[in-house]
Amino acid sequence: MSTPATSTAPLATAAPFYTPPLLHPIHHFGPQALDFSRQVALMAIVNRTPDSFYDGGSTFALEAAVAASLTAVDDGADWVDIGGVPFAPGPALSAEEEAERVVPVIAAVAAASNVIISVDTFLPEVAARSIAAGAHVINDTTGLSNPDLASVVAESGAHLIITHSLAAPRTIYPRPHYDDVVTEVAAFLSEKVELALSLGVPAEKIIIDPGHDLNKNTLHTLAITRRFNEIAALGFPTLAAVSNKDFIGESLNQRKEDRLEGSIATGVICILGGARVLRMHNVAAANSAIRMTETVMGWREPAYLKHNMGEVNEPAHPERKSQNGKSNP
């Protein structure tokens, strides 16, 4: 977990950072607490599916999924998001089969680590079993298509991630049209937050996600990234799920396996616009990017201070002797 800095320097006025007006900056996830006024949570992605978007099923086996989750923790993840069904169109999966995929992973990870665990599902039955197994968060990428999901979350005390998407679960959606994608996404999320609140989910348990690429083309997603502050302004911790997505590939003409740098750049842009959770595949690289951003923003102290800190400063690199025995600077 990030360690808040002890500096007393003012933070909110440090341009070009956007500081969202969080209704509840501190969120509790089981034994963990995150202060989203000065922390960004790194969410790792572990999909126990044979047809996942990025890894093509490499973590479908139970042992592989658990190992990937714990490796992500070792690499700096604050949070592991476990999924059993892709968002993309395809055959429906029964609640029983989906639960059989995710619940054993959740239970094993919860037993081995105190990392925050979310399950990517839109089925109330799967949500209930996942929470019982140790999940702290339900990540609903369908924008509460089933309101019963919110009731399950409310009764359990878990968190709920509400994502903007337009398609019914696992279905094809025609070419999306928006007059102003950012304004319309913000309005959708605001409406769904009100629905969740009316069903008993406390405001301090809600996180929102504008849904990069979900029923949006590349131009739509770039606008959301550029104007991320308008989503974060709703006052809830906002998640940016940008990792290796198609809008990066189309922007840079890159295959999925070549999109790391574009993913990190996009993630940092979202953080500067107010994102407080970053969902990423490449955990170690994303961890460095996030922690460096937090340090620049004054939320973390540097790991150590040595450069130009002494009365006499040592060379950055020890002198090396060349083959002829003379010293090289």
Task: Tag the structure with descriptive keywords.
alpha/beta, 8-stranded parallel beta sheet, two-stranded antiparallel ribbon, 12 strands
State the share of residues found in helices, binned by percent: 25-40%
The total count of helices amounts to: 10
Please list the strands of the largest sheet in the order they lie side by side: 8-7-6-5-4-3-10-9
What is the typical, i.e. mean, pLDDT?
A: 90
Distance between the termini: 39 Å
- The multimeric state of the shown protein is single chain
Strand content: 5-15%
Task: Provide the structure class.
Answer: alpha/beta
Please mark out the parts with pLDDT under 50 across 5 or more consecutive residues, or reply none: 1-14
Shape: globular
Order of helices and strands: EEEHEHEHEHEHEHHEHHEHEE
Main β-sheet description: 8 strands, parallel
Task: List the SSEs and their pairings.
Blueprint: E1 26-29, E2 32-35, E3 41-47, H1 62-74, E4 79-83, H2 95-112, E5 116-120, H3 124-133, E6 137-140, H4 148-156, E7 159-163, H5 181-198, E8 206-209, H6 218-226, H7 228-232, E9 239-241, H8 246-252, H9 260-272, E10 277-280, H10 283-296, E11 320-321, E12 327-328
Parallel strand pairs: 3-4, 3-10, 4-5, 5-6, 6-7, 7-8, 9-10
Antiparallel strand pairs: 1-2, 11-12
Helix pairs in contact: 1-2, 2-3, 3-4, 6-8, 9-10
